[in-house]
Amino acid sequence: MQKTGPLVFAAALLLPGCIAKTALNVATMPVKATSQAADWATTSQDESDRNYGREMRQREAREARERKKACEEAGYRDC
Description:
The protein is mainly alpha-helical. It has two domains: 1-42; 43-74. The chain has two helices and no strands. It has helices at 4-41, 45-73. The chain is rod-shaped, with a radius of gyration of 31 Å. The model has no long low-confidence stretch (mean pLDDT 82). Keywords: Signal. Residues 34-66 are annotated as: Disordered. Residues 1-22 form the signal peptide. This is Lipoprotein.
């Protein structure tokens, strides 16, 4: 019975902090979820620029393939 005394004392000191942290996490969870949903729903300027650059590179590559194909179909050897 004497061995459980220090354990109970330590638990009494540690649990209130644990409970407070859990309560804080529960209270801030909806705010974090809303923030994350807003982040997923919107596009930042950086993301927009990156997507535009990717689209332009893909378009240029597609146009280059089409020009090469048209050149070869026209009968030119050095395209």
